[in-house]
Amino acid sequence: MKAPCVRVERERGETTRRQLAESDLIAEDLEIVVEGGWLFVPIVDPDGVPDALEVVEHDVPTRETPDMPVDILGFEPTYERLGDIVLIDEDDDDRAREIADALVSSAFPVKTVLNRASKIKGETRVRDWDLLAGDETETVHREYGCEFALDVARVYFSPRLATERHRVAEQVVPDERAFDMFAGVGPFVIPFAKRDAQVVGTDLNDVAIGYLRENARRNGIEDRVTAIAGDVREVASEYEDWADRLVMNLPHSANEFLDTAVSLAGDECVIHYYDIQHEDDPFGPGEAAIRGAAEPEYDVSVETRREVRSYAPHELNVCLDVRLTR
Q1: 134-149 pLDDT, tens per residue?
Q2: What number of CA atoms fall less than 13 Å from residue 77's CA on the CB side?
Q3: What global pTM score does this model have?
Q4: Average pLDDT over residues 175-182
Q5: DSSP letter assigned to residue 53
């Protein structure tokens, strides 16, 4: 079958294969092909491949793989991956253990399996976990060419939002000034800075800010990132009228910080405002709150109304992209 592949000289093949594997870019269900003096390594995300490598379309056969979890269990388990950690959400302890055992004994690349043991709680938005396999809760997660070191047990991070983060990051232009008011380990900050923006990220969780600083170094953009541990309301005075772009990803209570967001906004600023509302009117409350905080100082224009995901029965996690013009 035709698939996107990295084409590389045979003598550089193993080094390149390891580089792609470290970034989780290799299509594990397809075979690596050798033709002439070239290696063709099938990949899952051409956009994530470093510019120095050549990507081409090439015929590659399907790989005969060992048992995967579905083959062992007889059903496809629901899970999320963060690096080499797998997260599951099972109320039944026996079923959770069965899934964990299948994941570990399959060909699936996994070091640790964790089952959710609580909802997200507290100001730092962490949750409790039951450790079902392995002994590490720290990992390195990769998405869209960025690396994020994090400890699942000590910081908040949702792999489900990768597509949404990429959507927002693609809007960033060089030399922009962006402010993430609830930055965590940097899933918005890092891709913004990689697009040559100057980015400030704040978070109450000092562990997350430590990882944000590490991730800035890991991705080679520490000169464009300022990471601040603390409440954004306490540091906003240092950045009044500063931001061209604001991220407000605190869906249950972002409305409480809108006055601060307006104080941070420059003469023209785009706010990415995340909210959780009933499906009957998912965007109205957020738009009304933004207008209440920003008008009449700013003209308010809603550029995007987007349903990000279902959050609970009849509740939606949504995003409003709103442009403020003074």
Answers
A1: 889 999 999 988 999 9
A2: 27
A3: 0.78
A4: 97
A5: S
